[in-house]
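Two proteins follow. First one:
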Amino acid sequence: TGDVDDVGPGPAQRMQPFDHPVLRCAPVRAPRGHPPQIDDVANFVPSRLTGLLLAASAMMFAGLIAGVRAFATMMRDARLHRSPNSGWPEAAMAGALDRSLAGPRIYRGDVANEPMLNGSGRRNAGPKDIVTGIDLTNAAHLALTLLTVCLAIVA
């Protein structure tokens, strides 16, 4: 039919262990009362730290308003994401860029009706937004590296 799925997964998809035709299924949350996935527990602190570092990077490099907006968006919208951890850095980046991220989209031919992160943000992203997002991510990486080195020196 000409669909991309007809030719099989690409290199990036082949690297993802659960993106196999036999294992493909829609992402679901565990019902209440069931233990969280180990990766949800392992990424609880790192995801929130990443969001904070992105908000701090936005404040330093894009200005006070962008940093405050990134932090406020993260605190307000992070829990809207279906992942207990991914929403924190995604919401921070949405606020920093003043863009709406996530939301309804088509995934493998099915419509995923997800809520928008920073729903009041601009919808159309351009090359400048991509460059700014990369710059903020690099600044957050640098901040984490410096924090790690400082902690290693103190310890």
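Second one, unrelated to the first:
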Amino acid sequence: LEENDRDHLFLGDSLSWGPKATLTHLARLLSRRRSKFNPLWNDLVVGGWDEQEQKIVLGTTDMIGTMYEEKVIATGMGMHLALPILRAGWRPDLTEPEARQLVIQAMTVLLYRDCYTLNSISIGIVKSDGTIRIEDPVQLKTEWTFNAFVRPPLA
């Protein structure tokens, strides 16, 4: 991606890839690698502001090049546990604090599923004016004193 930006800079055409072009490029790259039996074992998420369509773009592609755009995205175990929570809570007029709380709720569920992971997350925000902000990590509040956690039943 950086090489593409350098090429356009040297050509002087002032072109740059938007989020849709970046997502498409990455999906084709992953598909090509899979076809050569040398896949990159990644799920990638691309988000940003589309200057041409004047809207926020959020999309994902997996290791075989399957690509789609959606209002909410989750990968890995999050596809199974967090995505239903995000879809149920998402609405077009969601405020930033509400969205933050929804993400924290979904990530807390994932933390309880994989208790060996860190309880620290970073939240990224893309606004309609094109600004992108990645915030400092926040600690998820958890409760591990439930009897089932302290003294699990014998199987």
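SUMMARY FIELD: The mean pLDDT is 88. Residues 96-113 form the longest helix (18 residues).
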